[in-house]
Amino acid sequence: MSHWDAIIVGGGHNGLVCATYLARAGKKIVVLERRGVLGGAAVTEEFHPGFRNSAASYTVSLLQSKVIDDLQLHAHGLRIINRPANNFLPLDDGRYLLSAPGRTQAEVAKFSERDAQRLPEYEARLEIFADALRAWALRAPPDLGVAGGWRALPALWQMGRLGRELATLDASLRQELLDLFTLSAAEYLDRWFESEPIKALFGFDGIVGNFASPCTPGSAYVLLHHVFGQCNGVKGAWGHAIGGMGAISQAIAAAAREAGATLRVDAGVQRMLIEQGRVAGAVLASGETLRARAVIANVNPKLLYEQLLEPAQVPQATRERMAQWRCGSGTFRMNVALDRLPDFRALPGPGDHLSAGIILAPSLDYMDRAWLDARRDGWSREPIVEMLIPSTLDDSLAPPGQHVASLFCQHVAPVLPGGRQWDAHRDEVADLMIATVERHAPGFAASVLGRQALSPLDLERTFGLIGGDIFHGALSANQLFSARPMVGQAGYRGGAAGAVSVWLGNASRRWCERSAGAQCRTGGVAGSVDPRLAWVRARRADQRSAPAASNDPLDHLTLRRWFGRLGGPGGRRLLNGGCPRQ
Asked: Please, what is the angle between helix 113-134 and helix 171-182, to 10°?
């Protein structure tokens, strides 16, 4: 029976980052991955002979630069390049919009001079809000479930710090920031723009991975969520990892191994080992038992609380919260092998538009109808499709002269109405998605050499994305920040003693590229701080009141002295630094 300082359940990129930080601190760490490959949803796999692609997560922006630098991922082979164009929106009438650095305003002016004049202010406004909140991606949210007294001081200090930082915004900006969390994307965009194609170009971000209409209250926040990131120092930019998203996971895995972590595949965890009321290890599906001082769950919280832990081991409030936890992002994912590049009617021939995110959704009304269709019938009759062709930037993915395409398709219901099963309708929906691209790029269907289609059920079975949810939980106000996954667990402590989590709860657009550093929290302190502090809440419950100081980094009094150097009880949060994201 093996014994470890910590077991990490799930070999997704967040778990691998957590493993690396802790192994660098000298801890004995093992990562247990159910599948035969590390990376979770950030993997590159062959889906058709000779054709490889990012199987689930397919573009990167929200992987924190701090994590890249701390783990020296470039030295481990990671190379990310920026896309030369951001988004391409072809329209049925033959017009199009192409957003790209230095070109977007002129493109918008083709549709509305007024909107072109408003565009710089709109972008600057979102960047102000992103800057105000961006630093909090590297901090654990205030734990609002802590009882009064001195234990509440860290949360109170954090709340005060957040208030002070937001106070740097004037009153009108604070009101607008509040509006972003409550308004629909359509309402917010109506304040800024008059042209429907322009609102569609930006409004698409409000429904990506969000099983909702752009008219749904709260969807405006998802607009902001998608500008938090950066790519090679360019704020808000999206890029491509050479070799696919699996290259990110492989670079992190290399860093983890170098630090001394043990990484195991084909090692699915059946349940947590509970002894004397605390998590003491994990039992594998094979029957093997591993013991540890802490178990770190890099899985959806519903999997943790409803499958890995017995009901009697989970507090009643947590069970009730998980029963209400909303998962399901309306996502159908496809990887397509092509014998040639698509030729769009709106913009024929090759060009930067083929390296962009190609959005097939001409208006907010179109997106609204797609959502209503899916709620009623199970999938949109006129679906929303975003297509990327990563082989335009990376020739390692396909044979010479041929290409791969990633299709991110919405909306589809996580569970089909009328008792229908996804396995019986997967190919029908995949045909519809190909036909949707064909309408804009005649000849696309004939160019398809092979395809992989992943329904919400496939995404759940393969990657552990409950309901196919790329964020591991809806991005609604009652499932964000200190309420993610529930009030009282904002510090990423599990619902049972000895259990902590690094799940992809704040994962961002495009699956799990959300800041791995922000998710790599062991017991409430992020993995990107001094790893000694990261270990504070992962120590044994019966060691909470060590009788004397020592040099052991797990010692309670020693930790208090470290906190003092950082500025008192709240100091442990000063440097706090979770991707599917994601």
From this structure: 90
